[in-house]
Each structure stands twice: as structure tokens, then as C-alpha cells.
Amino acid sequence: MSRNPDAPLPPNSTIGILGGGQLGRMSALAAAELGYRCHVYAPDADSPGMQVAAARSVAGYEDEATLAAFAAAVDVVTFEFENVPSRTLEILAPLVPCRPGMKALSVCQDRLQEKAFLAAAGVPVAPWAPVASEEDLQAALARIGLPAVLKTTRFGYDGRGQAVLRAPEEAAAAFARLHPKPLILEAFVPFTQEISAVAARGPDGATAVYDAVENRHHHHILDLSFAPARVPAAVADSARRHAAQVAAELELVGVLAVEFFLLPDGTLLGNEIAPRPHNSGHWTQDACQSSQFHQHIRAVAGLPLGTAERHSDAVMRNLVGPEGMAKLLAAQANPTVSVHLYGKAEARAGRKMGHLNRVLPRGTVEQARDEDLLSGL
Ligand SMILES: Nc1ncnc2c1ncn2[C@@H]1O[C@H](COP(=O)(O)OP(=O)(O)O)[C@@H](O)[C@H]1O
Ligand SMILES: [Mg+2]
């Protein structure tokens, strides 16, 4: 007899995770706490997720025979990065429940679809235009103006596949570098802050949204998140409402993050959606009873969601490359800091190796100076 897909997964069930990165690793660790086994599917045998998995499939994402065996071995499938080919979900979806499903994956894989989706969901976005040729780029620049950002529509992360255009003569070289991939031109947003909000949504539509956080980037890679964001309450509420709305309209089952730019007049513009746990939600591991990874697994397993309430303030620092790893010994010796490492062998430049969460009493982030908040990080 086949199982009712809406009933909570019983303990010891197996959750399949597509992708072997740190988000899958931390999801698998949360799943283990909740009494589930994880079967990780990824091309690389020594990936962070594989190291903590109960079962493994080491194969390409379009290997139909291995995908079929994976589907047969798991009770539900999720993914930890949105660049899983849509073909993979097409193969798996008839065989096993996939959470979140195709809609969340396809919208968030493509910046053009993502921008149109955000606008339709009532989230304002900066002016943008698709760019397939140099003529398109000239026309888009004439409409959008400078400065602007030219990005690949797919497979971008940590600022890869992007060029900031400040002068007209920079356009040709940027186009030549990023072409022939499909591109998007976006107006450069003169933001005062970047903030994000993480929302969890269960199969029954129940939603839990964490407090919005302030994010700072270094070389286009997330460096710091401050929880909560130091913004007016109306701005934080608006970010959280947008995240819940986007989750509902994507029919998401799992966790997502929406990244926003905050303008000087208090307007929020949507930047990106990540249909999975997000780096800007790592603070929830130490400052909330249910972390974003627990919520993701709860949603995917059909368990009731936990609370998204923040019992403490937190500052998260990413450990990136060799400079990040140089902070490790001091962080390990600091009792106010939780260290999370991803098991990556080599600290290459720009590579996320782990993160630190500094936990602080509620109200501290609002009041303290940055230099005090960052001590030990
Ligand atoms: N249109 C823009 N205006 C200003 N800054 C931008 C713009 N797009 C991206 N950035 C900066 O680059 C960072 C990374 O870009 P993003 O679009 O989020 O791509 P990804 O995170 O996938 O690399 C953003 O967090 C922001 O700091
Ligand atoms: Mg981003």
C-alpha cells in the first residue's frame, strides 16, 4: 500500500538531497536530529553533504539509471542548490515527491523569470532588460542608463557572471566576456543596505518567517549578516511579508530566502530568490529554536513547522578562503562564538569554508556599535 504523501514522514524515513554542498550538509545534520536519514546525490564523492550522509549516489544530474535507483531508495527528494537541471526533476517527479517542485526551481534558475515573477508577486524590482545581442545591450543601456549591472541569466552565484558598467565604453568588453550566455541588464541600485528574509512553508500552506537580517558583502560574497536588520519596523515587516507571499506563489514546500536592496527613501527592491536554505539564514542555527535547516526538513517531511522566533540576536561571519580560515583558532577559543565548518579540504580563494555565529542578548544588535558586535569575528 502506498503512503499518503501528505502524512508526516515517519522517523527513520529517508530524505534524498540533490547537491553535495554545505547547505545539504547542514540540512542533513538537522534531518538526523529530527530522526531522518539523508541520501545525498551529487557528482563529487567528497563533498560536504556526502561526508554526513547515511547513503550516497555519486553521479551526474542527468544519469537516468542512477536517478531512478535514487528515487526508489528515498521517501522524498529536495535540493540544496537551484542549479539542478530541470531535466533531473522531470525524471524524478513521476517517481517520488519532490519538494520544492518544478515551479520554484525553474523561476529561481533564471534571472529574467525571477524578476518578472517578483514584480507579478507585488515585489518592486529595479529596471531590467533581457540582452541577447550587442544591439539589445545598447538599447537596454539607452533605456536603463548607467551605472548598470550586466549578469548572466543562469548559474550566477557569489557575484560570478556579473559586470558593473560605469561608462559606455565598458559595455563591449563586458558583453564579450559574458556572451554567448543569455544576459540581463539591471539598473545599478544605489542601496543604503542589503537585507533578506527567510520563509519556511509546509505542504499545508502554513508559513513561518524569520526576522529580516542585514547583509554585507565583500567582493560580492556574503561576509556578514546582522540579526535583526537595523531598519524601521515597517521595512522589516514588508520584507517578511514579501518572503511569505513569494513562498506562497511559488507553491514552495521548504525554505526560501528573498534578497532585497533598501533605498534611501525606505523602498525595498527585490534582488534574488533562493528556493532553499540561504547563507543569510545561518544565524538561525544558534539564535532560534528551529533553524532554517530544521524548518526545511520539517516542511519537506510534512512535519508541522517549528517557531521562527528569534530568542537571541546574532552576527554571522562567513569564513571565506585562506583569510577566513586564519580566524579559526581565535574563534574556537571564543565562548560567545559557534563555529560551523563544512569539511572542505582546500581553502581556495573565494571559497566558503564555514561560518561563525556570535550569539548576543536580544536588543544588542540594535544598540551596540559595529566594532563591538564584530569583536571575536
Ligand atoms: N543591480 C544591482 N545594483 C547594485 N548592486 C548589485 C546589483 N546586483 C547585484 N549587486 C551586488 O552584487 C551582489 C551579488 O549579486 P546577486 O544578484 O545577488 O547575485 P549572486 O548572489 O547570485 O551572485 C549583491 O548582493 C549586491 O551586493
Ligand atoms: Mg545574491
From TrEMBL:
Enzyme class: ligase
Pfam families referenced in this protein's UniProt entry, alphabetically: ATP-grasp, PurK_C, RS_preATP-grasp-like
Pathway the protein takes part in: Purine metabolism; IMP biosynthesis via de novo pathway; 5-amino-1-(5-phospho-D-ribosyl)imidazole-4-carboxylate from 5-amino-1-(5-phospho-D-ribosyl)imidazole (N5-CAIR route): step 1/2
Gene Ontology MF terms in the entry: 5-(carboxyamino)imidazole ribonucleotide synthase activity
Protein keywords: ATP-binding, Ligase, Nucleotide-binding, Purine biosynthesis
Domain (ATP-grasp): residue spans on this chain: 115-301
First and last residue of the signal peptide: none
Entries under PANTHER family matching the protein: PHOSPHORIBOSYLAMINOIMIDAZOLE CARBOXYLASE, PURINE BIOSYNTHESIS PROTEIN 6/7, PUR6/7
Family designation: Belongs to the PurK/PurT family.
Subunit-structure text: Homodimer.
The protein's name in its UniProt record: N5-carboxyaminoimidazole ribonucleotide synthase
Gene that encodes it: purK
